[in-house]
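Input/output pair, single chain:
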Amino acid sequence: MSDMIKVTGLWKHEGKGGVYYSGSLGLAQMLIFANKFKRSEKDPDLTLCIAPKPEKAEAKPRTDAPAETGEDKGIPF
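Output:
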């Protein structure tokens, strides 16, 4: 056990298809699902899928912030 390397963490989710686990590794997102097509003991219990990590939405300017006017224009606080 001491030779094991932790690669990433996984989070449990519940979706329409049941329970699955997800985590990220660099630019990839990992998803682990139960194998619903298991027909024999030799078939795997789980399936690991790798997908591109979704891009985060760009920060949008706040519309509720007061407009910059007068002397305080450009002051960062």
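The CA atoms of residues 15 and 23 lie 15 Å apart. Strands lie at 11-15, 18-25, 28-34, 46-52.
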